[in-house]
Design brief:
Layout (H helix, E strand, L loop, with lengths): L8 E6 L3 H12 L4 E7 L2 H11 L3 E5 L7 H6 L6 E6 L15 E4 L4 H15 L2 H18 L3 E6 L2 E6 L5 E5 L2 E5 L4 E4 L3 H7 L5 E5 L2 E4 L3 E6 L5 E5 L6 E4 L1 H10 L3
Parallel strand pairs: 1-2, 1-3, 3-4, 4-5
Antiparallel strand pairs: 6-7, 8-9, 8-12, 9-10, 11-12, 13-14, 14-15
């Protein structure tokens, strides 16, 4: 066996679920030639840790509150090799138009993680392929940008231009994003979504609803000082504008 084949892989784990994080760490530590150089409980903690440790690979949970896996990558000047982890069955990483090193379905199995590590080892032993992989990942991060949102279409994740969002709302404690003719689930809170949207274009008309002002057709008086906001999706959805938010909206759209 050559010296390159037994090169120590420096790995770092980022996952907001402690049990999942510890499980991955335990599996990694059982693999010969792997050193776990750290773990982080969320993207915010992961950014400085990755910059400090410069790992060869990060086992990265995609869906995390506050800062998801892709937002975390956007904050890095140099992106390491990444093995994505997700709880969504049959998660289509190709929806991001990238061939990642690998992606793992939760709960992560020991054997499957071992296969991902071997793929990482192969890239580390091939400078050309490693550079190609890192460029694909960097392209993903660049193209994602603040103007696009990762949303779920069934079991696939699609990058949706924010300009196409007509409104977003909470239904049965889940956040759904509506375009002219489709509805997508988003794995975030409405507050987290609001932070990612342009405040000059998007307005929270109610604690459970955000609208794109470019798609508002009418503002109709309702009752008790409330209004209905009618938007231009196919259903001509009528959304409640709360009394308190009506005062704020008047400063933007006087009526």
């Amino acid at each position: 066996m050559s010296g390159d084949a037994v090169r120590t892989i420096r790995a770092l784990v980022v996952d907001d679920e402690e049990l999942a994080r510890k499980r991955v760490r335990r599996f990694l530590e059982d693999i010969e030639g792997v050193e776990v150089v750290g773990e982080a409980e969320n993207g915010v903690a992961g950014v400085p840790l990755i910059k400090e440790e410069a790992p060869d690979v990060v086992i990265l949970d995609i869906q995390m509150p506050g800062m998801d896996g892709f937002q975390m990558l956007e904050e890095l000047d140099e992106v390491p090799l990444v093995v994505f982890a997700t709880a969504f069955n049959e998660y289509a990483i190709r929806a991001f138009e990238i061939n990642s090193v690998d992606y793992l379905l939760k709960p992560i199995e020991r054997e499957r993680l071992g296969e991902a590590v071997e793929r990482v080892r192969g890239l580390l032993n091939d400078d050309a392929k490693r550079s190609e992989e890192l460029e694909r990942l960097a392209e993903l991060v660049r193209n994602r940008g603040p103007g696009r949102l990762p949303v779920l279409r069934g079991k696939r994740i699609v990058l949706l231009d924010t300009a196409d969002v007509v409104w977003a709302g909470i239904e049965n404690e889940l956040v759904f994003v509506h375009t002219i003719d489709e509805r997508y689930m988003m794995n975030s809170t409405l507050a987290e979504l609001e932070e990612r949207l342009d405040p000059r274009r998007f307005f929270r008309i109610h604690r459970s609803t955000i609208v794109n002002l470019d798609h508002v057709l009418e503002i109709v008086p309702w009752f008790s000082g409330k209004y209905k906001v009618i938007v231009d999706d196919e259903s001509r959805s009528e959304l409640v504008l709360s009394r308190g938010r009506a005062r704020d909206l008047r400063e933007i759209l006087p009526w």
